[in-house]
Amino acid sequence: MLDLGTSFLAAVERSPGAIAVVDGEVRLSYAEWYERIRSVAGGLRNMGVEKGDHMILVLQNRWEMATLHWACQFLGAIVTPLNWRAKPEEIDYCIEDSGARVLAFQDVSAQAVAESSTARRLSRIAVGGATGGNLTLDDLLQAAKLMKPVSACAEDWSLMLYTSGTTGKPKGVPRRHRHERSAALAHVAQNLYRHGECTLGVMPLYHTMGVRSLLAMALIDGCFVCVPKFDPASVLATIEAERITNLYLVPTLYHDVVAHPDCARTDLSSVRKLGFAGASMNQDLVQKLVAVFLPELFVNHYGSSEVYTFTIDQEAAKKPGSAGKAGINQRIRVVQLNSGDPDCVVPEYEEGEIIADLAGDESFEGYWNRPDADAKALRGGWYFTGDTGYVDSDGDLFVSGRTDDMIISGGENISPIEIESLLSLHPAVDEVAVVGISDPRWGQKVTAFIKRIGAVTEDELDNHCRSSGLANFKRPRSYVFVREVPRSPVGKLLRRKLVANEYEPEQQ
Q1: How far is 80 from 61, CA to CA, in rounded Å?
Q2: CB neighbours of 171 closer than 8 A, spacing ≥ 6?
């Protein structure tokens, strides 16, 4: 299999004049971008960065971030991106854990890097006019170009993403060039991307969805349009100006785009393919997206940093909530909860834990320096995802939540996603999250946290649930109206914050 640097070089040879990356006023063809990547790679080599070294990036989605990512692929270095909002102690931990030798940062992350005691020991590259580095990216661009175009092979490490770390320390997920290329090829195939597509690079490049968008475009000589920070108005303007052909976002970002007043007056006709991942999408949002975009293809992608693709549903609007069937590089099973046994497969419609085959081309091989995490998640050649779900009579997977999210109320196991999807259909509900709150009678009380966009009472929402046919034991016993439903920077619902009373009630 080709390594990623050679894969990029192939795009340069096929389509040297095609626009490869856009970032504001910066528009680079494949040939132009390749020369900059070679210079940056040469500059990194002069700094002593060698094959197998980790490079920490604390950057937003900008052409410099994408350039450093590709430069590492040519060098054989391991690109290790962090959330640009990372705190000093998070940077300290990731540097120590990875053993990184060099770090790049920009203005929005400069203070955290300056306050990181470990970062001071590294060579630091300042990007975009930031201060506090040993040198700047402009210095690298002036360096002699890398003489040998590619120093990596398919078996070398390419990337290490850190999991979000909602509980405990984040875990490093190392992935080889062959893992990354297989995932990118599957992304192209499963989203039916054509030669020369143009994608919106808004999912952060420290997240698996962002990385996949970047790599996939190079495989089809496409264009990656950088969006440093999500803003629905600027995203809408960029879609129209750059004639974006496909979107790959988390549901929260789609929600904010279609809810923005500029949406109705923006030309979105260039977008023909929609893809989403990272969380389930409720029925109301599915219907809105179909009405706004009239997509040729609407893909629900279910996966993780560890194993990029678990399942794919290319007709997401036809069976809302379905995650589809295993991707082209994968096999999945649903096994009995807490069994730890990959052969203990549950029958149709019975809820269990979703597991994925570690022999899949996209599957990682284990966490970085975390044998404890390996022992918990890797069993009998399968990856235990920690997600719950069931398979219907068509063989389609439905993801119901995390094993930790399961609500046990009155002795019944209750998944919050079904209730959330139902409540989302009420016209006065903007966002909803359902959790189990400790209760002396029920054990856990089903509680719905609602962000309203119209007047509605608890009784009206309860009647909505009753009239829908929702089983009585699943109905929320309590409603809380909040200003915002807490989410991570990439839109993941943070139920733990609601359980811990870390939310702002709606002002009366």
Answers
A1: 14
A2: 162, 163, 165, 367, 368, 370, 373
User: E strand or H helix at 97, and its extent?
Assistant: helix 88-98
pTM of the predicted structure, to 2 decimals:
0.85
**Start-to-end Cα distance in the chain:** 60
The CA distance from 218 to 7, in Å, is 7
- Nearest Cα residue to 249 out of 191, 306, 196, 291: 191
CA distance 438 to 481: 18
Q: Please give the angle made by the CA atoms of 137, 139 and 142, to the nearest 5 degrees.
A: 115
What are the Cα distances from residue 320, in Å, to 22, 222, 344, 422? Answer: 34, 30, 28, 11
Domains of the chain, with CATH numbers?
Answer: 406-499 (3.30.300.30)
Burial level of 109, CB count in 10 A (0-12/13-18/19+)?
buried
Strands (E) across 137-276 are located at 157-162, 172-176, 198-201, 223-226, 246-249, 273-276
d(CA 32, CA 16): 8
* Extended beta strands in 137-245, E state: 157-162, 172-176, 198-201, 223-226
- Return d(Cα 181, Cα 99) in angstroms, integer: 25
Check: CB of residue 76 under 8 Å from CB of residue 53: no
Digit-by-digit pLDDT tens for the chain (508 residues) are 999 999 999 999 999 999 999 999 999 999 999 999 999 999 999 999 999 999 999 999 999 999 999 999 999 999 999 999 999 999 999 999 999 999 999 999 999 999 999 999 999 999 999 999 999 999 999 998 887 778 899 999 999 999 865 456 889 999 999 999 999 999 999 999 999 999 999 999 999 999 999 999 999 999 999 999 999 999 999 999 999 999 999 888 999 999 999 999 999 999 999 999 987 888 889 999 999 999 999 999 999 999 999 999 999 999 988 999 999 999 999 999 889 999 999 999 999 999 999 999 999 999 999 999 999 999 999 999 999 999 999 999 999 877 777 787 876 778 788 899 899 999 999 999 999 998 877 788 999 999 999 999 999 999 999 998 888 889 999 999 999 999 887 777 888 899 989 999 997 6
Query: How far is Cα 205 from Cα 212, in angstroms, rounded to an integer?
Result: 9
Best CA proximity match to 4, nearest among 298, 231, 297, 219: 219
Q: Classify strands 429-439 and 443-452 as parallel, antiparallel or unpaired.
A: antiparallel
Eight-state DSSP code of residue 151: -
Rounded (5°) CA angle 231-228-166:
85
Residue pair 443/409 in contact by the 8 Å Cβ criterion: yes
For residues 307 and 222, give the distance between their C-alpha atoms in angstroms, rounded to a whole number.
Answer: 24
- Tell me how far CA of residue 256 lies from CA of 252, 321, 428, 493, 494, in angstroms: 6, 20, 16, 15, 18
